[in-house]
Amino acid sequence: MPRRIEIVSHLSITELQTKYRSAKNPVTRSQYQIIWLLASGKKTEEVAIATGYTVEWVRELARRYNRSGIEGLGDGRQNNPGREPWLDEVQTSQLLQVIQGSAPDGGLWNGRKVADWMSEVLGKPVSPQRGWEYLKAMEYRLRIPRPENKQADPIEQEEWKKKLAFKVKELQEKYPEKKVELWTEDEHRIGLKPIYRRIWVPWWDVPTASIKWQYKWVWLYGFVNPESGETYWWLMPFVNQEIFSQVLEDFARYFGIGEKKQVLLVLDGARWHTSKSLKIPAGIDLEFLPSYSPELQPAERLWPLTNEPIVNRSFETIEELEEVLIPRLKVLMEQPEFVSGLTCFHWWPTTDTCIN
């Protein structure tokens, strides 16, 4: 059975509560909270859950308080200058240069390999924890690289950004009586083949996700105005110029494009976007991305958001998947500021408020 720890009455429960409420240092504050809860009769496990600390640490704090009162609490690091750093400035600079390349074994760097390198430089054993701490201290983070096509032309991409801004200005001058907006559109294929993503779980838990491989798909057409964060969605079984013509017609009708509004729509060079038989509604001008440049497409950032309710799940039918996906699309339509924060690149024309 869970046990209650007896707390010595160095301070009353009210005094402990006051100490907890008034403490400025977050470490000291949490320690006063633990002792106050224990003194109030809470069980050790309850206090650990409420404060986010381990049962062992709660018991250790109780022992310190019972032995020394409030003198046994507090953040001892404030008055502790700490030990000398493992690496001096020169050695730290060397480490920064070394980790730009491959690790000595030809693989990727991690905390253990950094610690091994430090051991060779210092001539003494260094624990893997120290290597990880140095990586963190140098503000290195584990990130998955964004794929960039080797055939992409950086000069062409920069010229295209300038061209896009010029095209917006040109439309504003051509249609002074209309509101000119810059939108983007892309398609995303989703289906019954499961999508997996990392999730937060307790450290002792091994998460699982059901698997049922089925090669059936649906296409999500996504429109976004990066400046305003407005979005618009279509779910269709295929992608072709006939369907895309219908999607464009509905998009134009929904947003009143034509008489009082002109839209410049950024697309990639997919064949259904460039087909000569594509029907483009009045009020819409198409602007195509440079070749091999998906990173310039703001709509690409929509898909991790739309995938969220369907990851780590399997569905029996496309209809079942759509029933889960559609409410998510409606939620995103109601969160324009959030969407704009992810899709409005710093170089995006027509606004000076985009911060990405």
Description:
- With 356 residues, the protein is α/β, with parallel strands linked by helices.
- The protein folds into three domains: 13-79, no CATH class; 91-137, no CATH class; 156-343, Ribonuclease H-like superfamily/Ribonuclease H (Nucleotidyltransferase, domain 5, 2-Layer Sandwich).
- It is 41% helix and 11% strand.
- The chain is built from 13 helices and five strands.
- The longest helix has 21 residues, at 154-174.
- The radius of gyration is 29 Å and the shape is elongated.
Could you give a short description of this structure?
InterPro entries: Homeodomain-like_sf, RNaseH_sf, Tc1-like_DDE_dom, Transpos_IS630-like, Winged_HTH_dom. By secondary structure, the protein is an alpha/beta fold. The protein is 41% helix and 11% strand.
- Total helical segments: 13
Q: Could you tell me how far the N terminus lies from the C terminus, measured between alpha carbons in angstroms?
A: 53 Å
User: What sort of overall outline do the alpha carbons produce when their principal axes are compared?
Assistant: elongated
CATH architecture label of the largest domain:
2-Layer Sandwich
Helix/strand structural class = alpha/beta
List keywords for this structure.
356 residues, alpha/beta, Nucleotidyltransferase, domain 5, 3 domains, five-stranded mixed β-sheet, 11% strand, elongated
What's the topology here?
Layout: H1 13-22, H2 26-39, H3 44-51, H4 55-68, H5 89-98, H6 111-122, H7 128-137, H8 154-174, E1 179-191, E2 217-224, E3 231-236, H9 241-254, E4 261-267, H10 271-274, E5 284-288, H11 303-307, H12 318-333, H13 336-343
Parallel strand pairs: 1-4, 4-5
Antiparallel strand pairs: 1-2, 2-3
Helix pairs in contact: 1-2, 2-3, 2-4, 3-4, 6-7
